[in-house]
Design a protein that fits this description.
- The protein is α+β, with helices and mostly antiparallel strands and 421 residues long.
- It has one domain: Porin (Beta Barrel), CATH 2.40.160.
- The protein is built from eight helices and 16 strands.
- It has a 14-stranded antiparallel barrel. Strands 8-9 form a two-stranded antiparallel sheet.
- The longest helix is centred in the N-terminal third of the chain and has 18 residues.
- It is elongated.
Length: 421
Amino acid sequence: MTENRLTKLAIAIGLSFATTATMASPQQPMSSRSFAMGGTGVAVAHPASAGLSNPAMLAADQHNGADDFGLILPSVNARFADEEETVDQIDDIQANIDRFQEMDRTSDPDEARRIAGDLRRQLNEFDEDTVRADVGLAIAASVPTDESSVGFFSTGNLRATVRGEFDEQDDAFLQQLETADEATLATADLDRDLLSRGRILASAVFEVGVSLARSVELADGNKFQIGFSPKYVQLRTFQYTETVSGFEDDDFDSDDFETTKSGLNFDLGAAYAFGDNNEWTAGAIIKNAIPMDLESAASRPELGEEKRKLKLHPMVTAGIAHKGDFHVLTAELDLTEKEAFGYEDDTQWLAVGAEFDAFNYAQLRAGVRQNLASNENNDGIEERTQLTAGIGLSPFGARLDIGALFSDADTGVAIELGAAF
C-alpha cells in the first residue's frame, strides 16, 4: 500500500509553514501557569510572564523569591481537536483509493464495486469534518524592581486546520461504479476522476517586544501599576486546497499559498492592588491596540477557495484576583469578542483559576473557562467549556510548570522551564 498522500500533504504544509512562521498564531499567547489556570493571567501573572498577559504585573508585588529576576526558557503548549476522528477518516479514504487503483478489477469486479460503495460512504461522512492543531512557543525575561521594571518577550503559536469537502460529482461517479460492468471498472481512475478535496487553512502571529512597567504607592497604602509593551508583530496566513488524490509532495511550494504582513503594535495594561494587605488585585489590558488585517491567498478558486481576512484587532480583558500565603484565586473576562479566521468559533472567554502553593516549592493549579461567543452555527469546531489543571515545581529558584486542558473538542498540554529569584 502506498503512503497516504493526504497525510503527506498535511506534514509537508505543516513543516513548511512552521519553518517560515516561527510557530506563531493569532491565539493569545500564555505561560504554562496561565494555561493550567483556565487561561487567566491579567491579575495574577508573574513578572517573567507579564509580557504575555499584562505588562503592568511586571511591577506588581510577588511572593519572596520571585521579584528580582524571572526567566522563561522556553514555554511550549499544544492543543489538538478532532471531533470526528478526521485523521483516521483520511487514512481510511486513501487506503480504499489505493486498494481500488492497485487491484485487478476484471478478475474481482464484485470487490471493486464494494470498494466504490465504501468510498462513497466515506467521502460523504468526511464532508465538513475538521481537525485542528495549535502549537505555541514563548521565551521571556524580566527584571522587576520596587518602582520601575523591564522585561523582554518573544511569543508565537501556529493554528492549522484540515477540512474535508465532498464533491457531489464524486457521489454520482462512485454510485455508477457500484453497479458498473467490468469494462467500466477496468478504465476507472480514482486518482484522475475524484474531485473531493482537503483544505488546509493556517494563521499565525509572531511577536517580539519589551515590557516597561511602573508602580506607584498611593496615600491609602494601595498600589497602582501601569505597563506598556511596544512590539514587532508579523502576521501570516496560509490556504491550500487539493483533491484527495491530486497531491504530490514534490510539486508543493508554500510560497504560492501564503501571505504575510508586519508592523509595530503595543499592549497597554494596568493593575490596582488594594485591601488591608494589598491581597486583592484588579487588572486590565488592551492587547494589540493598533488594528491589523491580512487577507489570505486564494490561488485555487476552481476548488472553491475564497479569500479570508485575519483580523488582529484590539482585545480588552479585565480580571480580579485574591492572593494569600498559600493560594491565588482569580477570575477574568474578555470584554471584546475575537472573530474566527478559520473553521472555528468566535471566542470571548469568561475564566476562573486557582493556585495552591506549598511554601513556594510546589503548586497545584486548576481552572475552567466558558466561551460566551460559542454558537451552533459556526463553520467548524465548537469551543465551549474548557477544563484545565496543572502542577508547578520551584525548588531553589528553578521552575518546572506542566498544564493540561480538556474539553469536548480539545485536548492540550503545556510545559515550561524557567527560573525566579
